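This entry is listed below:
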Amino acid sequence: MFLVNYSSTSESETEENGKEDHSQQLEKKKVILPKASTLLGKRKLPSPDDQVIDDPSQHEGRIRSFKHERGNWATYVFVATPKQLLEDVQEMCLKQLDTKYDFKICTDPHISLSRTVILQYHFIESFVKNLEEELTANGRFTISLSQLKAYTNAERTRTFVAIKVDDIHLEKMLEILKKVDQVMLNFKLATFYEDPSFHISILWCLGDYVDEITKQLPDILHSIRELLPIELRIEKLYCKSGFKEFSFDLK
């Protein structure tokens, strides 16, 4: 059996009077909230010390294609290439080239399916989702590569020796490229080059030596004829944005 104690009438009245007094005090008292600047401090404006300074000596003399800015992410779409697939070709080509050009092995071989564009951080999620919708409907396929070609970057600050995708696969590559270009247009970004030449860069050096290297390529190609063609099975496509990497499985 539980006993319940009820307050007397006088106790209830005292309680009510206390509530009224407290309520009246709150109404009379003016509450002043602190300003945001008081809580957070004054907004700090960017200064030269906050900017990322490009130092070519930190990345083998290479120069950025565009200035690094906070919130802007360098982004591109590509086909990844296993390093072991190209090792023999890279080593053989490197031995054939004049050492005065100081060629180095490309450590991240791939086939570009877009230019490198600047994407703002808050667009990354929707950009990747859009790519996924466009690309995953494509089937897997195999390509071959059997020709060498010399390229230079847009700024003409670097020269590349590359192995080209054979022309018989051009239609299939263009089919994929068309979808990537459409995503770029959706986000008002630059599409790929008008006359695409799909390739894997295998060696690079500083400076523009395309003309000189092009003259040497027939002899180099002859020396590696037993290693060609290289066949690459494409089952996934990739997008890299800053340090984030995303993959898209083909069906």
Q: What stands out?
A: Confidence is low (pLDDT under 50) at residues 1-15, 29-59. Helices lie at 9-28, 36-40, 87-96, 124-135, 170-186, 210-223. Residues 9-28 form the longest helix (20 residues).
